[in-house]
Each structure stands twice: as C-alpha cells, then as structure tokens.
Write a structure and sequence with these properties.
alpha/beta; 23% strand; transferase; Purine nucleoside phosphorylase; PUNP; EC 2.4.2.1
Length: 278
C-alpha cells in the first residue's frame, strides 16, 4: 500500500509532527482511549516484560498506523498495545519494537514512536534496551538505570535552529522512583553506536575512556526527541552480555534474547511497579 506524500517520513517536505498526530488519531480510534498517559518502548530482551505491566485492552499492528513499520529485529513484536495501568484508569501505550538507526529509514522514523506517544497524550516515556555492559560486576540479566548518554551516531532528531537543553535528560525523579521499587538498581552512562555491527574491543575501550558504562545501538536519539516533546524520560538498560574485549566469548543476538528471557520477571515487575507509581 502506497503512503500518501503528506505522511511519508522519508519526504523532506513532510512535517514529522503531522505524521505523529495522524498516528495518534489512529491509536485513539483503534483503542477507544482518548489519551494515553505513559509510553513504554520495549527493546531487545524486554519483550516478555510488557506482559506484567497490566491487562492489554487493545492491540494494533504497527503497519496499520501511519509512519510505523513491521519489526525488523528477531525477538521484537510488531504490535503496539494499549494497557491498563492497574485500576488507576490510566493507560500505557506499549511499543513492542522500535526503528533502529542502522535500518536506514532515517532519524525521523527512529523517533516516530516517541513523537506519536506525545501526540497521544503521554507525558512520560520509558525507554528500554538490551546492551553490552562495561563493568564486570554487571552480569548478564542485570537491569541498569541510564543516568546520561553519549550519542555517537553523529546525528540528531532535531531539525533546524531548535536548541534543546539536555541537562537532566533522564529525569532524576523517575530514577528515584525506580530505586524505590528496586533499591539494588545501579546506574550508568549509555553510549549509542550506529550499528548494526557490534563494537570492537578498541571502541569499547574508547567508550570507557569517555565515560561510558553501557554500549548499544538505540535509545539516545529517542531520548533527545522526547526532551524536545517535553516528555519525562526513564531509561533502563538490560545488560545482556559483557561488551567486546570484556567478554571472552563471541557476541551474538541469540545471547541477547536468552538473557532477556532469564531476566523477564524481574524486569517486568520493575516496569509494572514504576509505571504504576509515575
């Protein structure tokens, strides 16, 4: 099915915020919810965690919503869900996948879910991912709060002379809420590489030198777009493997999925409790 020109994110003449508003209109129609309150993006290893957030009241295939595409990564779900947040009467919009920068669809597509969440009424977004850990004490299956990030994509979702302040990009109040739920949570700095190849040992050493604790291929561009949209941001990484040069074994995506399955209950309960308290 061809995409109308005014909804084609790849067309420079398209207003990406208009596409987000069109997507939010479809979500309202399909879910029967005038607004959603919190959005969750489930990254690699987090798929099962979404099931513990609450009762799914409606599901929508990504391909039925303007600007979205089917899941491109194994272990991700190509549907979005409208989920009841306990008995609060509030709703969470749960994205089962994201568009990664390495897919080549452009930064607008990467951050479209964030902008759609804002257009759907969300004021908070939880960004999750699977990543490589740079600290030896973080075993596979360890969730880590993102305190800050380093964006090594050499790109930005912000177009034109819009100068967005990224101080406290990852909302301190939300990190405090997460630690109330799970006092054992540690935190660190996430470094986004372009991907899709894994980092070399030399690149991992560089990430450590510049202040990184976690390495991956997502999240930072979305967080920037969320700040532009005035959303509060909670970032949580699931350490699925030790990064190259720290790990003694070759890296693989299967390892990522396996670690996520092993940590699904802890991560799901963490998300459910945090979302309820937000």
């Amino acid at each position: 099915m061809s995409v109308p020109a005014y909804l084609d994110l790849a067309d420079p003449a398209t207003d990406p915020f208009e596409v987000a508003r069109a997507a939010a209109d479809v979500i309202r129609e399909r879910t029967g919810a005038e607004r959603h309150d919190v959005a969750l993006v489930l990254g690699s290893g987090w798929g099962q965690a979404g099931d513990l957030v609450g009762e799914t009241l409606a599901t929508i295939e990504n391909t039925e919503v303007p600007g979205f595409a089917k899941a491109a990564v194994a272990g991700h779900s190509g549907v979005m869900r409208s989920v009841a947040i306990g008995d609060t009467g509030r709703r969470a919009l749960v994205f089962g996948t994201r568009t990664h920068y390495y897919e080549g669809r452009g930064v607008r597509a990467v951050v479209h879910g964030v902008r759609t969440a804002a257009a759907a009424g969300c004021r908070t977004i939880v960004l999750t991912n699977g990543c490589g850990g740079l600290r030896e004490e973080w075993a596979p299956g360890t969730p880590v709060l993102i305190r800050d990030h380093i964006n090594l994509t050499a790109d930005s979702p912000i177009e034109g002379p819009n100068f967005v302040d990224l101080t406290d990009l990852y909302t301190p109040r939300l990190r405090d809420v997460a630690r109330e739920v799970d006092p054992g949570l540690d935190e660190g700095v996430y470094v986004q590489f372009r991907g899709p190849h894994y980092e070399t040992p030399a690149e991992v050493r560089m990430a450590r030198v510049i202040g990184g604790d976690l390495v991956g291929m997502s999240t930072s561009l979305e967080a920037i777009a969320a700040r532009q949209a005035s959303l509060d941001v909670l970032g949580v990484s699931l350490v699925t493997n030790a990064a190259a040069g720290i790990s003694t074994t070759p890296l693989s995506h299967a390892e990522v999925i396996e670690a996520g399955q092993a940590a699904a209950e802890r991560c799901g309960r963490l998300l459910a409790a945090v979302v309820t308290r937000i």
